[in-house]
């Protein structure tokens, strides 16, 4: 299995690459993900935080998550594509949106989370 994940935004301004974490991929139905993506959920792929290389153009929105800790959502300032999520709580991972992956066949969610918010 190839653990390298590459991807980027719709317009191509922001590109990233990194290596998959051992944490499972998942579909998140939390209210934050709904609002940040404009859909009912986010498809999330965890990467090892210190393996991530990402373009300098990425813009980050900081907010307080459901845990009460800070979370950070990265997006393209040009086309608005959601690209990353990270949190103080899980600092060893950075999460990328599966829709931004160059090869979406590498996405296979292991579980849904926050289903009660769906």
CATH class placement: Mainly Beta
What would you report as the Rg, rounded to the nearest angstrom? 13 Å
Strand order of the largest sheet: 6-7-8-9-4-3-10
Number of helices: 1
Q: What structural category do the secondary elements indicate?
A: mainly beta
Oligomer: single chain
Give the percentage of residues in beta strands. Answer: 35-45%
The percent range for helix content is: under 10%
**What is the CATH architecture assignment?**
Beta Complex
Secondary-structure element series:
EEEHEEEEEEE
Q: How many β-strand stretches?
A: 10
Mean pLDDT: 92
Shape descriptor: globular
Q: Kindly report the CATH topology.
A: Metal Binding Protein, Guanine Nucleotide Exchange Factor, Chain A
Span from first to last CA?
32 Å
Q: Tell me the domain tally.
A: 1
How does the major sheet shape up? 7 strands, mixed
Uncertain runs = none
Task: Tell me what you see in this structure.
The structure is a single chain. With 118 residues, the chain is mainly β. The chain has one domain: Metal Binding Protein, Guanine Nucleotide Exchange Factor, Chain A (Beta Complex), CATH 2.170.150. The protein contains one helix and ten strands; from the N terminus they run E-E-E-H-E-E-E-E-E-E-E. The protein has a seven-stranded mixed sheet. The chain has a three-stranded antiparallel sheet with strand order 1-2-5, with no helix packed on it. A hairpin with a 6-residue loop joins strand 1 (4-8) and strand 2 (15-19).
